[in-house]
Specification:
Helix content: 55-70%
Keywords: Membrane, Transmembrane, Transmembrane helix
Number of strands: 3
Oligomer: single chain
Largest sheet: 3 strands, antiparallel
Order of helices and strands: HHHHHHEEEHHHHHHHHH
Mean pLDDT: 82
Low-confidence stretches: 397-405
Number of helices: 15
Radius of gyration: 37 Å
């Protein structure tokens, strides 16, 4: 009897398992039928489903609330201010009359003021006195005598002298200042000449051929015995290049006169100068910094309780950057275009030049990059959002039976 009872209990347990399994199978079958019907309905209206999800995504990621609007127009204001400030700083002005040149010369005077009482006032061959170095004149600006040696004629001395090179000038220009020499490019040669001044350091004249090698040996000696004077000469070189950057002749791109004739180097500088490169890169760099600051600040204001998901919020951040860049650069294009058109209609070439000077090429580059980058990020997040929504839409909440092993 005991054995029979145990066997009966085992049989009952097996029947209970079969019954439970059958109920579970029936439940899963019902869920499967429901999900399948839902999927069929959604497939029949797939276009509308996709349209609704896209509309929902656009609504959640659009610049709608007050917080986003504040960041958008702050970014626009900063970008427009950048365009104006960079254009003002880099505007072309006549040599000796520009605001930038005047500022740099005053800055130099202030720096050199405490050295004015020096007793070192007599120039020697390959050695400029400290008083000479403290003046605003640089020896490689000398033009008197240039024609005699077949070096250059007049203003195009900038394209014949290595002191005016924006990179090599820190070596040759500084050496020229320390030795009262001028180093010129006469393809395929690099030749140096002595420059002499009168007793009040005026009337510079190119007098005779000098040794470029000996010039550098004398500079090396000066470095060992008087590092302060060498530092002052270097500062003078930097400031002088700065005063020439945004003048009508401009400063050639690095090394131009080493591979081109003086005439061709001058022609090239009319189209692209070192000043242009500095303007474009600085404008682009500032635009990138502004975008970064706006992006960081906007993300700091993210509130997980009130705002959408972090991924969708990031789309709104990038949209703020993209739209602000587009608005700022569009306004710049309108200003430049209208200046050129009005200038042509009224026969006013100065207005045309003014418009051309305001072209924000660096900003255009950053704006295009921002548009492409933002669009790629937005599309990636949109696809992920679409996939998740379609998954929920087609399968609903009752799909646990699909996940069972």
């Amino acid at each position: 009897m005991r054995k029979y009872k145990k066997l009966s209990e085992k049989v009952n347990k097996q029947f209970e398992k079969i019954i439970n399994r059958s109920e579970e199978v029936n439940k899963n079958m019902k869920e499967f039928i429901e999900v399948n019907n839902r999927m069929l309905d959604n497939f029949e209206n797939l276009d509308k489903v996709l349209e609704d999800i896209d509309r929902e995504f656009a609504k959640k990621t659009g610049i709608l609330n007050k917080k986003d609007q504040i960041f958008l127009w702050t970014a626009v204001a900063l970008q427009i201010s950048r365009i104006y400030i960079v254009s003002e700083i880099t505007k072309i002005e006549n040599a000796g009359k520009g605001e930038l040149e005047e500022y740099l010369k005053k800055f130099q005077e202030e720096m050199f003021k405490k050295f004015q009482n020096t007793n070192d006032g007599i120039n020697q061959e390959y050695r400029a006195s400290l008083k000479q170095i403290l003046t605003n004149k640089v020896p490689y600006d000398a033009t008197d005598g240039g024609k005699k040696f077949g070096i250059f004629k007049g203003a195009n001395h900038r394209f014949a002298t290595l002191g005016h090179d924006p990179i090599l000038g820190y070596i040759f220009g500084t050496a020229n200042i320390l030795t009262n020499t001028i180093t010129t490019v006469q393809l395929p040669l690099v030749l140096s000449y002595h420059v002499q001044y009168n007793e009040i350091y005026g009337n510079p004249q190119i007098t005779k051929l000098a040794s470029t090698g000996l010039m550098f040996l004398k500079v090396e000696e000066r470095i060992k015995e008087d590092k302060i004077t060498v530092a002052l000469a270097l500062i003078k070189q930097i400031i002088h290049i700065g005063t020439d950057l945004y003048t009508p002749k401009g400063i050639q791109i690095p090394g131009a006169n080493l591979v081109l004739s003086k005439k061709n180097a001058e022609r090239l500088t009319k189209y692209i100068s070192t000043g242009d490169i500095i303007k474009i890169t600085s404008s682009a760099a500032i635009a990138i910094v502004i975008n970064f600051i706006i992006s960081v600040l906007h993300n700091l204001f993210y509130n997980e309780n009130d705002d959408i998901s972090r991924e969708l919020y990031n789309v709104r951040t990038r949209k703020i950057l993209k739209v602000s860049n587009i608005i700022a650069e569009s306004l710049n294009i309108v200003y430049v275009g209208s200046s050129i058109v009005i200038g042509k209609q009224t026969g006013n070439p100065e207005l045309i030049k003014e418009g051309m000077k305001r072209i924000d090429l660096g900003g255009y580059i950053v704006a295009v990059h921002q548009i492409v980058k933002s669009s790629l990020v937005q599309e990636k997040i949109r696809r992920e959002y679409l996939e998740n929504k379609l998954y929920d839409k087609f399968l609903g909440e009752n799909y646990s039976f699909l996940e069972e092993e």
